[in-house]
Specification:
Elements (H helix, E strand, L loop, with lengths): L1 H6 L3 H5 L10 E5 L5 H10 L12 E5 L7 H4 L9 E5 L7 E5 L2 E2 L18 H14 L17 H6 L2 H13 L19
């Protein structure tokens, strides 16, 4: 969340199409104990002044308690779950259950095929980005994409110069921040 406060939540690909980053204006914490000061320190004040947004996001608290939160399950053994629910509002089948990063129910035989991918994985998001790019004429494309011979996911991300400049500045000043392996981003649309 601290990096989102500086670079925005949109990521490199979407930043090609935006004039300004999308920053959080508020954060809602629900049904659990928290320290307002500690949360603000974590997402805003710990950043060096040059990385900090002019104002921290507004913090809101909801008294609604998640049924399976620590408070509600105290005294009962809590068992972690490898699955997650992914809701994508614009799809016909907008609700997906993911297990260990793949759609639930996918057989081992299909694990490396597109049918196994969740719609929020980087390959599927790259496909959507590429489809959007194909729908636009050259004069409708953002300047960062016009006349470029970008092929791989990594090249398109690196082509978002303003975003990359912000990201590099962030990582330079927050040197302990983890980064993803470049190998995970070196695929092209033909391989998708």
């Amino acid at each position: 969340m601290a990096r989102w406060g500086f670079c925005g939540i949109q990521g490199a690909l979407l930043s090609h199409f935006l004039r300004n980053p999308i920053c959080l204006s508020s954060v809602v914490v629900a049904g659990c104990p928290y320290s307002k000061e500690a949360l603000l320190r974590a997402i805003h004040w710990r950043l060096p002044a040059v990385l900090r947004a002019p104002e921290p996001p507004e913090l809101h608290y909801s008294s609604l308690v998640f049924t399976h939160s620590k408070q509600m399950t105290s005294g009962h053994p809590v068992i972690p779950c490898a699955s997650s629910i992914v809701s994508v509002g614009r799809r016909k089948n907008g609700l997906y259950i993911g297990v260990n990063g793949y759609k639930q129910g996918v057989t081992r035989k299909n694990i490396e095929r597109p049918v196994a991918r969740l719609p929020v994985c980087r390959r599927e998001l790259f496909l959507q980005f590429h489809e959007l790019k194909q729908q636009l004429s050259d004069d409708q494309l953002p300047a960062s994409l016009r006349g470029q011979d970008l092929q791989s996911y990594a090249e398109f991300k690196l082509g978002a110069h303003d975003y990359q400049k912000s990201r590099l500045e962030f990582h330079k000043l927050m040197s302990g921040w983890t980064t993803k392996s470049p190998d995970l981003q070196s695929f092209a649309i033909q391989e998708v």
